[in-house]
Write a structure and sequence with these properties.
By secondary structure, the protein is an alpha/beta fold. It is built from 6 helices and 7 strands, in the order E-H-E-H-E-H-E-H-E-H-E-E-H. Helix 2 links the parallel strand 2 (about 30-35) and strand 3 (about 55).
Length: about 190
């Protein structure tokens, strides 16, 4: 069975969707959850699901040690699911082509530093875009610039608030992220 590592900073709804999906299919398992916040909701999910977790701190991060800890899991993929840091270059280089991220907009629009979560939805609504969506992409050394794996779209309705759009985007994320991981499991050599 393929191992997945999830990096997350928040409530963990995407992590929960991925865990639930692969509990059903049996094709992979989340072997480790990494967070940069000791009070992140994703850690409650880790505890409930009995998944080991690490809490990391940017100021004291020993990149060599974290790479060793991640390598010990032998991950098929490192999955960023609402992780609010730019992935350190040493980690990107240690796992080439094995780190993916989900972005709550159609890249290349509304990407880059500071463009995450509510900030993205607010900008999309303020620009009066007709559609938005999600982008699942490989991670490289730059914010939101890795090769795109999948994009899924949804309408931006007249009168939508950022929260209305966020709700629609979350549905896309929870449906497509686990299935995209499964696609990569089935179509990429380990």
């Amino acid at each position: 069975m393929h191992s997945l590592i999830i990096f997350a900073s928040g409530a963990g709804s995407n992590a929960a969707a991925i865990i639930a999906y692969f509990k059903q299919t049996g094709k992979a398992k989340v072997s480790l959850i990494v967070s940069n916040k000791a009070d992140a909701g994703v850690l409650d999910i880790a505890k409930k699901e009995e998944i080991p977790f690490l809490i990391i701190n940017k100021q004291t991060l020993n990149q060599t040690l974290i790479i060793e800890q991640l390598s010990d899991v032998k991950p098929f993929l490192v999955v960023l699911a609402g992780f609010m840091w730019k992935m350190p270059e040493a980690i990107v280089h240690a796992f080439p082509g094995k780190i993916i991220n989900i972005h709550p907009a159609l890249l290349p629009g509304y990407g880059g530093k500071g463009m995450y979560g509510h900030h993205v939805h607010h900008a999309v609504v303020a620009a009066r875009e007709k559609e938005s969506g999600i982008t699942i992409h490989y991670v490289n050394e730059h914010y939101d610039e890795g090769n795109i794996i999948l994009q899924a779209r949804c309408p931006v309705q007249p009168g939508d608030s950022p929260d209305d759009l966020a709700s629609r985007i979350h549905k896309l994320e929870h449906f497509y992220y686990p299935r995209t991981i499964e696609y990569l499991l089935n179509n990429t050599s380990a």
